[in-house]
Design goal:
With about 300 residues, the chain is α+β, with helices and mostly antiparallel strands. It has helices spanning about 10-15, 25-45, 70-80, 90-95, 100-105, 115-125, 155-165, 225-245, 280-285, 290-295, and strands spanning about 1-5, 50, 60-65, 110-115, 130-135, 145-150, 170-175, 180-190, 195-205, 210-215, 250-260, 265-275. It folds into three domains: about 1-85, no CATH class; about 110-175, Dna Ligase, domain 1 (2-Layer Sandwich); about 180-285, ATP-grasp fold, B domain (D-amino Acid Aminotransferase, Chain A, domain 1, 2-Layer Sandwich), CATH 3.30.470. Helices cover about 35% and strands about 25% of the residues. The two termini are about 15 Å apart.
Length: about 300
Amino acid sequence: MKVAWVMNLDAELELESPARFTRSSRMLARLTDRGSKLVTSFVTCFGIEAALANRGLDSSWIGQAWCPTQSAHAAIAECGAASLRSPSLEVISRVNHRAFAAEIAQNLPHASFVTTMSALDEVVSQAAVHGWLVKRPYGFAGRSRKRFLGTPTGAERTWAEASMAGYGLGLQVEPFVDLELELAMHGILNESGVATMGPVFVQHCDEDGAWLSQRPLQDGDLRAEELSSFEVNAQTVAQALSVAGYFGPFSIDGFVWRCIDGKRRLQPLSDLNARYSMGFFDAMAGVKAVREFIVESRL
């Protein structure tokens, strides 16, 4: 098996505005550099020959994309690799939109996905010790999010108003909380709706939420009930994705946080990525279901 990878790590920008999406030369250079490293990681973790989807390949190569957007399908076709069977763009856009995850779980106090400025003002008018974390519908690598300390004014309000008119339409609003432990779990969902999950990892992100690294869960990181809740939530997410018509790789993020009353709380779903994600290859290394998915994704 040989896999031709389209590492479109900026897929959310395309989902945000498919008709107007263009990629700058600077972004292309960054994707090529980061993508090459990810291909190396894939080869190491799965022992499968792989390369970036460049010209000169043929149908013996299986096309695979970080996220199977329109541009990813075009790149696979251009390089000559076998076409990729994937969910429709409509499905991919829906399940990666923050409103989809919000429908599954809104566990933080007063958290809400809003689509009007009046709804936003109502949420952020409530008391929040550390202010509010506000995120546009599509984001990656810590992009498209801001921290509001109260009702937005000036440049913050302009940014919020633009979010109601474009960028996916709406904002996820939740209290900014004191994180103790950030979590991730990766899985692969086949077309029959069967999900194969990897283990829970502790992940490390920078102050903007961009992924830096991960490590295996260790004894004492989570209480038994927290681990069970996070794992059950992963299956709930997988079921919701399947009902929506999605199949393929996905991951969920969550975290443990400390409330102002001193109690430890679990947020089992802070982000949902219906695509490959940083840490996926390492977390799912050697998993048979991933290899089967790649083979079966050939049209």
